[in-house]
């Protein structure tokens, strides 16, 4: 059985201790970002997710800079179709693949907020954004296909004899992750993606949602926070510290943002948190930070063994990959890859042994 794959959310400012602290969006600490990426490289992190938002620097030039300063870690570029033509985007990704020696993957996102989409001149509704995303991915797949000129006419894109001299490094195409909780996101992932990524839930609920993807041969991934310590008591003490001094004004801002958005993923995460009283969805899954940080803040909390065992429950539910982050990002990354991952691998080895013995 394949090993679980683990990625990390790249933070351009990894020093936040409190779950409610705001990221500095008015500066770019490139040296700090390079140090973070080099740390991930040394720890054996498979990939760093490079998010796209009006609050962040554009990820493409950052990836170009980080790729030249690292050797093994890959970069998952988050991108929302509609900002660039599919031909130009493919050309850019191909170029980055050569700069990075093929260490580039794509996280294609339809967008979570109509307000933010409007900042970029995009006013399509939720399902129309996914329809455009499908056309976009169709053209990308053809451009990464047999090398023949690509002509395409759809509702959102038209290209005539599109062709590129520089292909993807090593041939083929990058791995493609499709994000979103909606049914249309699932179908897009099955048709055009390698992995469907969504925000977290309990393993029981994830198993229900993952079933059609698993049946179609599409991998399933989760975006979560993680807080692991040697003992559960230490983890709970740390969680209490992280959640102290909450900013209720920021909580109100997040609530208004969610209500104004049209993302089923974001709304579902907030609903889960509210139904749990902003507490525990399970003994390991904590929802209290979602009100202050949104969907990705659903957090695995416990001892190294508890967190590792819970990850194995997700694996049994059909999950193959995770993108984690934490508070502070770099500290938790070191703890997870240094302390939790070895326990996960031991559990996986034990499981493989038991499966082999049962044959």
Automatic annotation (TrEMBL):
What superkingdom heads the lineage? Bacteria
GO MF assignments: alkanesulfonate monooxygenase activity
Q: Which UniProt keywords apply?
A: Flavoprotein, FMN, Monooxygenase, Oxidoreductase
> Where does the Luciferase-like domain start and stop, copy by copy?
21-319
Q: Does the keyword Oxidoreductase apply?
A: yes
InterPro entries assigned: Luciferase-like_dom, Luciferase-like_sf, SsuD_RutA_monooxygenase
Any Pfam family: Bac_luciferase
| BP terms from Gene Ontology | alkanesulfonate catabolic process
The protein's name is Alkanesulfonate monooxygenase
Q: Give the species.
A: Streptomyces showdoensis
